[in-house]
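Ligand: flavin-adenine dinucleotide. Inputs:
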Amino acid sequence: MQVPAHFEYQRATSVEDAIALLERYGPESRIVAGGHSLIPMMKLRLAQPELLVDINGLADLGGISLAGDVLRIGAMVRHAELLASVTAGTHFPLLHDAERVIADPVVRNRGTVGGSVCQADPSEDLSAAFTALRATAVIEGSAGVRRVPMREFFHGPYQTAVGPAEVLVELQIPLSNSATLAGSSSAYLKVDRRAGDWAVAAAAAVLRIDRDSVVTEVGIGLTAVGARQFAAVEAEDFLRGRQLTGEHIAEAGDIAAQHCSPVADQRGPVDYKRHLAGELARRALHAAAARADLAIIGRL
Ligand SMILES: Cc1cc2nc3c(=O)[nH]c(=O)nc-3n(C[C@H](O)[C@H](O)[C@H](O)COP(=O)(O)OP(=O)(O)OC[C@H]3O[C@@H](n4cnc5c(N)ncnc54)[C@H](O)[C@@H]3O)c2cc1C
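Predicted complex:
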């Protein structure tokens, strides 16, 4: 049986208390949220924190709500809560697409949105989803609150902009990409080997077009294929300002596939994953367009 190394445990009473505990115990202390990534790593001794700071009781880190021109999602929102949120699904259907295919109900009932993005596993579904949506991470430390765009949040596999004595408080998604606006929508598609498994590859698409079917904004996120910051920036740049045609979507998919860097593993070889990246980006763009009821010239 795998058991973690010895560690201390403290239950934070507030975000300030969590930050103070992290500062007092230094880099060997870690936040625990749902524990579905951290505890398995501790059991395997891939992580050996000396102190776990439990943030499960902090109401300030919960809730999904509209606030001005953003949708705010608290870091401690569980996957199941995001999946059940009518507000989140109405504005950003790709969040529900992604949550439906993350693990199983046991993990979804406990795992959190904040834990997912802070874990920064290259196969984490929400990382690509929030990147495509151009969300902003709100991070708090003893020096105050700072706001980091998702496209600057990930510093590499398992590394983020969150400092050792900081707490991710919430994610904010601009409502300018809301599916309630004419010409806008989003979608997330994933290929996995069996239901509930980690992605072989997945793609997120966010689209906004004007009355002439010109793409005014686009976000394309890629999961598990080594895309820098989970974004297919070159494909986004290609599509933005062009008419939303089937040909242009196909070209964007090719560009997304060219610019990612998958690695071969038990889920498949490089060529297969690269093919999936392009094909899923294309299909996610089509799905987002269909949701927004956009006529893709020459295809629909
Ligand atoms: C069997 C299984 C299958 C899974 N399948 C999938 C899948 O298909 N797709 C997918 O995307 N994910 C999958 N996951 C991962 C799951 O979504 C994550 O484990 C979970 O969401 C991480 O959140 P958590 O709350 O459990 O984080 P924890 O394990 O508690 O924490 C993870 C990391 O984030 C840090 N952290 C957590 N919250 C904060 C915060 N607010 N501020 C700063 N740092 C913080 C912790 O210190 C730790 O380093 C799977 C997990 C399991 C166990």
